[in-house]
Design goal:
globular; nine-stranded mixed β-sheet; alpha+beta; 458 residues; five-stranded antiparallel β-sheet
């Protein structure tokens, strides 16, 4: 692979690579909002054209929702599949953005230059690191590296409803020797990281119903059941005083982290103070007796993501609301079964309903188990060495607190392991206003993939 020439090509072509990324960032591919359906498709079509220009056999594949992008290049060596997603989160609340979210800007910050736009980090900037590495390789060598499949999704930020059926229907085409995913972050700025595990996810939502209609709080205040008060009691019962989830049987399938893994985490470069500072916190608020990294990577959670009911407008309206609502997510680890956790969670709520209260559940929400990768495969060590060479710092294999169901689906549907390498930082504000991606992450991310492909695509 003439690696040094490829790295030089990446360096000299960085400005042009940034221009291409900016073009993709301008496309408002918000998958969860039907108002942006056409633009989400535009992003898929843009990527197909880019991949075709590099020599990939690329196509847009229809689904009941947003399209998939699938591209192939034929070559020698192991079959490698690269996954990313081209859709983005909504931008709300828009008033908190300091720049227009779909008008990307290059900005100077105390920590270096950043690309400011929705999707800059999650996941357009990340997926383009791989595509740009392929571009540089072809420019130097006249052909694409190895035997590659690129698989780009347009519904990751809206629950991936089309993903599993598409993977099952295209199992033979998508199955490779190893999947590569670039949708993760570094454990600390400048510390290259490979994720060895991901927490799973369970989503649920319920409405607690009380009076037949909203009631006058003077006429009925006292005798009436107040759904907001009752839902607050139930929510308070989810955790004990030590921060443990108090749902019966919740911890079945949870395993303690082996001592040797804990020792490795202690030297992985994680800066607890910096991590907490980013969120405006001074201490970790999870389970007593576990470190911040254990709480983030290796322990399950039950979080309240939304809670509302009653009057939400300006001023006062003296009503007792007829219903109250709660959105929940659970992060899962080990062998926790999402279906069983859902059953136990719902039983916990239903067992605590007072007389005259009923509950309804949203049955359209999904869940996926945790993913644990086989990091003993030689490709993981090869990638770790490649990353260490590029970042001039020992790369580490870490856990990840987030949930990327695709990692589990690659294993359960296609029977292949996934290697997750990402270059985001904790302060990238993904899913939040003013999202950014460090230019250093973009530049060295491209160089990193070139080095990784040099070692494993042969």
């Amino acid at each position: 692979m003439a690696l040094n020439e490829v790295l030089t090509e990446i360096d000299t072509g960085l400005d042009a690579a940034m221009e291409r990324l900016f073009a993709l960032l301008r496309i408002r591919s918000i998958s969860t909002d039907p108002a942006y359906k056409a633009e989400t498709r535009d992003a898929a079509e843009w990527l197909v054209k880019e991949l075709e220009s590099l020599g990939f056999d690329a196509s847009l594949r229809e689904t009941p929702g947003h399209p998939m992008v699938v591209a192939h290049s034929q070559g020698d060596g192991p079959r490698l599949l690269f996954y990313g997603h081209y859709d983005v989160q909504p931008v709300d609340p828009l008033e908190l953005w300091k720049t227009a979210p779909f008008e990307p800007e290059l900005q100077d910050t105390p920590n270096g230059k950043v690309i400011r736009a929705r999707g800059a980090s999650d996941d357009k900037g990340q997926l383009m690191t791989f595509i740009e590495a392929c571009r540089a390789y072809k420019a130097v060598n006249g052909a694409l590296p190895g035997n590659l499949t690129i698989f780009l999704e347009g519904e990751e930020e809206s629950g991936s409803p089309s993903l599993v059926p598409f993977m099952e229907a295209n199992r033979d085409e998508l199955t490779c020797d190893l999947a590569l995913i670039c949708d993760t972050s570094m454990v600390s700025p400048g510390v290259p990281s490979i994720a060895g595990s991901l927490r799973g996810m369970l989503k649920d939502e319920f409405t607690l119903h009380g009076p037949r209609i909203d009631l006058h709080s003077g006429h009925y205040g006292g005798p009436a059941l107040n759904p907001l008060r009752e839902i607050s009691k139930i929510i308070a019962s989810f955790h004990d005083e030590k921060g443990r989830v108090a749902v019966e049987g919740f911890y079945e399938g949870v395993h303690e982290v082996p001592p040797e893994q804990l020792d490795a985490w202690k030297t992985c470069g994680f800066d607890e103070k910096e991590y907490l500072d980013h969120a405006g916190m001074t201490v970790a608020h999870g389970e007593t007796g576990y470190t911040t990294l254990e709480q983030q990577w290796a322990r399950p959670t039950l979080e309240i993501n939304g809670l509302w009911g009653g009057y939400q407008g300006a001023g006062s309206k003296t009503v007792i609301p007829a219903e109250a609502h709660c959105k929940i997510t659970c992060r899962l680890v080990g062998d926790m079964d999402p279906a069983e956790i859902r059953r136990k969670l719902r039983k916990h709520v239903e067992d605590r309903l007072p007389v005259d209260a009923t509950v309804t559940w949203d049955n359209d929400l999904d869940g996926a188990p945790a993913s644990v990768m086989d990091t003993s495969r030689p490709e993981f060590e090869a990638a770790r060495q490649a990353l260490s060479d590029e970042w001039n710092r020992e790369a580490v294999i870490v856990g990840m607190g987030g949930s990327i169901p695709i990692g589990y689906y690659f294993k359960s549907i296609l029977g292949m392991d996934a290697m997750l390498v990402g270059f985001a930082n904790d302060d990238d504000a993904i899913h939040s206003p003013n999202e950014k991606y460090d230019v250093k992450s973009f530049h060295k991310g491209i160089r990193s993939w070139a080095r990784i492909l040099d070692r494993i695509a042969k």
